[in-house]
Prior knowledge:
Helix content is 12%, strand content 26%. The strands form four sheets. Strands 1, 4, 9 and 10 form a four-stranded antiparallel sheet that branches. By secondary structure, the chain is of the alpha+beta class. β5 and β6 (120-124) form a beta hairpin.
Amino acid sequence: xxxxxxxxxxxxxxxxxxxxxxxxxxxxxxxxxxxxxxxxxxxxxxxxxxxxxxxxxxxxxxxxxxxxxxxxxxxxxxxxxxxxxxxxxxxxxxxxxxxxxxxxxxxxxxxxxxxxxxxxxxxxxxxxxxxxxxxxxxxxxxxxxxxxxxxxxxxxxxxxxxxxxxxxxxx
Length: 171
């Protein structure tokens, strides 16, 4: 089916399945700026409220932040933004582009920025380019959860570039 709710893969389902109670104890709530500046747009009719989440998706703005190691040029391919999907994600329908197409067998993955109609979001394509319109209900798009942890009294953010995406739709 195409019933999609990203919270199934972030705060509700994924969080409860992927992390032990000890791990949950060090995962911090993260304030997420969902304002227009996070989308890099002048006018977004479907802007959403800021949120506080334990597991979240990155924003368009996060992925041009050179402090995170990404290219600050949204029109440039970036190998750090490009990723392949996990075996599990592919088994439930996440699309994998063929390696012979010079993109390393990578996949699209969605961001949290709503673009239009409430179901179109920003995404990253198989080459690490920022894409301005993927449907969140498309089974073939991946998601890459991110978390912030507290360790030794310090906060550390683990961005999605270190976690393979899981399919955006449970199928």
